[in-house]
Amino acid sequence: MSNGGKNEGSNSQPEQAEMPFAIVQGAPLTELPRDLYIPPEALEIFLEAFEGPLDLLLYLIRRQNLDILDIPIVEITRQYMGYVDMMTSLLEQRGEAVEGLSPVVHAHRFELAAEYLVMAAMLAEIKSRMLLPRVAATDEADEDPRAELVRRLQEYERYKQAAQDLDSLPRMGRDRYAVHVDAPDARPLKRHPEVSLEDLSLAFSRALARAEQLAHHHVQLEPLSVRERMARVLEALRQDHFLEFSSLFSPDEGRRGVVVSFLALLELLKESLVELVQAQPFGPIHIKVPKT
Amino acid sequence: MSQNEIRNIIEVALLAAEAPLNVERLQTLFAKGDLKPDTQAIRAALAALQEASAERGVELVEVASGFRYQVRAEYAPWVGRLWAERPARYSQALLETLSLIAYRQPVTRGEIEDIRGVSVSSSIVRTLMEREWIRVLGHKEVPGRPALYGTTRKFLDDFGLQRLEQLPALADVRDLDALHADLFSEQERALANAQKEAE
Amino acid sequence: MSQNEIRNIIEVALLAAEAPLNVERLQTLFAKGDLKPDTQAIRAALAALQEASAERGVELVEVASGFRYQVRAEYAPWVGRLWAERPARYSQALLETLSLIAYRQPVTRGEIEDIRGVSVSSSIVRTLMEREWIRVLGHKEVPGRPALYGTTRKFLDDFGLQRLEQLPALADVRDLDALHADLFSEQERALANAQKEAE
Predict the structure, then answer these.
(1) pTM of this prediction?
(2) Residue A84 backbone phi and psi in degrees, to 5
(3) ipTM reported for the complex, 2 dp
């Protein structure tokens, strides 16, 4: 990019380039880095402005016409080591709260600075390998040392662009707003758990199994038809308090029905749930709820 | 700015706002450059919006702090279904209690507790009552007059049964061979014989 | 149940719901007794509602998890005035991380860091999780079992998308030669040529 055209790549250029970068010691800092060397007083700000060494390198390549071979690698490395020392002593001296930043934040800065350092080291390696004469026989293994860096830069640039594209999509809460209408009269519908017949009989068998484990227990069970009839008689008594004995038996139920009704009545009597009353010999028999 | 636009802006503002908006607040949405509508114009727009939703499920109402859209009362049940709570599962204790009421009705809480060997919590009974699966058939005439529980028609309906006898036979419920004597009373055998004769 | 009623019910449900509703969910609002409309009837009602709001400030759109009413883009500026606070702006670091997760899912934090050349702070991951834009899809079976991240349905909803494929196309690898040329000077190339000749 030897012509360094102004419009070129302006999309991928950090916004910060057009305005004062930061105020450092009272003076606006508008100068962007010309190489990988970052003035120590602006270190934090640079670390914020760029998303890392790849981002900075991309910027330098696109905007500053960076010539890698012109970078004084030795000097930069020395300076980076200086930052590392400085930050370490800062952390040690000031302990927990440094300008409102937690030690964690400082540790993060430290980590970032280290990442720039790794980049500097990588560039130094590339440069040294380029300068050394190649051994002819090892063509394949001895790949162009720049290739890996170029590949990484390209890959990073794609996602840097994707991030901007993503940010320009209309977003809920920023460009689009949800609408909402209250329903003051609505109550959440109460849904009941489903129970299958199988669940029910399983629960029953479990209850019975447990009852039998209690040795003293002797669970006696009448057929369901009898229990049902017992329930029906009680239900009828609840309404009328007084039932005629013959009303329990309905001819159209057949013999089986009569037997069931009779057994139910016997069971009710046995459990003292009903009383039989006969006012006079051979008079009508009545069923009623016992008085206590 | 057209009347239609003023109306649309007021509508979306009311729909997007978290709380009711009054006329003054609605007016602030219009910058001076927009040919700020006066309160009369805002009121006219509100009236037009009210009319426009006459046939819809939402209505524009005025409450203490301003105007708001809300779901008409007639449509509340559908919204309630939207918020339907995920049903919790019933506890084993509840299912056992229900099965004992079904198979042993009429039965008191004490009798259920006797069989289960643990107490039956009131909340279980309440839940089963609320579900309309059980009902009180009467009271046992013993001290304390405990309620006698039985199952309901709804219980049968919900379990796809026509009669209680269609509940799985005890034979299916568990391995009966060893326990046969315990499970079937003399009465049952008598019933079985009677049935045989009838056939 | 008339078509108009079905339409009104769907409209209030969409307006009262906190999140988009899909056709199946809308169908569940109608109990069996209501002569449950089929999916076609629901879709027809949605189309009618879409048409009915053509002239209004709200629009009915379909996003990943279903249909929702939202303020039409043209009316967003007025609605924005309702809130004093500006909507959140996200850092480049967060957006880069999010786009890497969106385009490369399932992806580990380490893989994101490899591409970005810097570590991904935990607070970014936490923010994205809190927004419910990303989720853990599983764990990569390598030492340390790092979490594999992917985007959520809500991510698509919030960015107005129905499917991941609707994301802007990822740019092709850019002008490799140009980048290469920028990176390395003429001087360097001369050196490389000299080497080649020497070989």
Answers:
(1) 0.67
(2) -60, -45
(3) 0.70
